[in-house]
Amino acid sequence: MKKRFAARAIALAVTAGLGLALTACGSSGSGGGDVSSANYTGPKVTISFWNGWTGGAAPVLVPKLIDKFNAEHKNIVVKDVPMEWADVARKMPLAVKAGKGPDVAVGHGDDIATYAAQGLVLDAGSIVKALGYKAGDFPEGLLDAGKYNGKQYAVPWSITPLGLYVNKSVLQSAGVDPNSIPTDKTSYLAALDKLKAAGVQGEWVDGYVFTGTFEFESLLWQYGGDLFNKDVSKATFNSDAGVKALTWMTDLIKKGYSPANVAQDGNINALISGKNAFNWNGVWQTTNEPLQKVDWQATAVPQIGDQKAVWSSSTHWMFMNNKGQDKNKTSAAATFVKWMNDNSADWPQTGELPAKNSVRNDPKLVQTYPHLKPFLDELPYAHYEPIAPGITTVEATITVAVNEAITGKKDAKQALDDAAAKADTLLKQNKAKYSG
Predict the structure, then answer these.
(1) DSSP secondary structure string, 96-108?
(2) Contact indicator for 122, 33 with CB cutoff of 8 Å
(3) Which among 24, 202, 324, 357 is placed 20 to 30 Å from 122, CA to CA?
(4) For the residues 199-208, what does the mean pLDDT come to?
């Protein structure tokens, strides 16, 4: 998961260096996107699938899914092309323009608009229709996350919400009932007070994307705020709601509930080693092997603000607009995507939730992966990535603000105001860069 977020910063820096030719003039293609049905019946083709699953997800992706798909489809061979996420994003623009990119790839929710504005992905409206997908087949708003300028460019694949990880042994040793995990501000503070009295700093807050930024964004939405305005032309994360959210986090340090200067991953490592009790972290931690040696439980993040809300990332299938793209390969890729979504029940082994409702809501999923239930329960109020070309560079300003406030370099309001000003500048630059 971390590699994906790191990849975005690297890739955007690289694509910026390629010049505006790839960003300001690209119109997304439509000629290669026609698919008549969910079952490809054309001549035998080999399709290329680019992805960044080189680690623990690889054994699930290839032997359990791609190999099985290939065995069941005599006229389609899927060639898995794994590479680091940074390499996927860096290589994609030039490869597609040269007709050497993948036929299908996976991108994050906040990558799709950038690819679409660059002309790298096909208009997938006809594909979605042919596959029979509707908005109600996925969590609310997730199919629309694949839209840009009114056109559909992607199909949902996975979701990764934040949750609260709890070391039950630490709670019990501090006199907190491990079977009554806090769900709101009052009970959460009460637990933190008991932990503090027992000499335990209950939640370690960090100033990094993992997971300080995700916690801040969850709290921002809980207090009724949002990251940007409706058309993503202005930053709004420095609203009163944003200040409340970040102040909550800095107060945890000031009041002694958290140590200062927590290192990257210091909070989850402290949970595993029994030094803290709570960690706001993503569903991907359910597969953390050292964690399995601990008496732990995952629950929904507590409602600190006025409403329930939680951050979530998402990944989506994209059909690439290669120069001279073969329509048969696009049609075969659509069959592959449909099959993968239908057969994604074991994808949680990788620490991600299947996006397709019928798969995710099957009772067998929770029976097989019981730790997933709280994350599934959060989805009705999950918030996903903002949709705008180049938005990942803008999102980085939020992490800067969180880090500056958490490390005491600036107070919450000043950090957010400064970041919002930088974000607004970047949004204006992106509008000019991608509007050609």
Answers:
(1) HHTT-S-SEEEEE
(2) yes
(3) 357
(4) 98
The candidate with the shortest Cα–Cα distance to 202, out of 168, 243, 179, 162, is 168
* Two domains, one topology: 2-160+312-375 and 161-311+390-434: yes
Which of these, 384, 55, 416, lies nearest to 236 by C-alpha position? 416
Are 195 and 274 in contact by the 8 Å Cβ rule? The answer is no
Tokens standing for 33?
């996107």
Alpha helices in 343-390 (DSSP H): 357-360, 363-368, 373-378
CATH architecture observed for domain 161-311+390-434: 3-Layer(aba) Sandwich (3.40)
- For 101, residues 6+ apart whose C-beta sits below 8 A from its C-beta are 48, 50, 91, 92, 95, 120, 320, 322
Distance CA 283, CA 211 (A): 12
Q: pTM here?
A: 0.93
The domains of the chain are located at 2-160+312-375, 161-311+390-434
The tokens for 162 are 């934040």
Whole-Å CA distances, 21 to 26, 118, 411, 431: 8, 9, 41, 15
Dihedral sign computed on CA atoms, order 115, 121, 126, 130: negative
Q: Which of these CATH numbers, 1.10.260.40, 3.40.190.10, 1.20.140.10, 3.40.50.720, describes 2-160+312-375?
A: 3.40.190.10
- Burial of 267 per CB tally in 10 Å (0-12, 13-18, 19+): buried
Structure tokens at 27: 């119109």
For 40, other C-beta atoms within 10 Å of its C-beta total 24
What residue type is 313 in one-letter code?
S
- Identify whether the C-beta of residue 157 lies closer than 8 Å to the C-beta of residue 340: yes
Model confidence pLDDT, tens digit, residues 53-99: 888 888 889 889 999 999 999 999 999 999 998 899 899 999 999 99
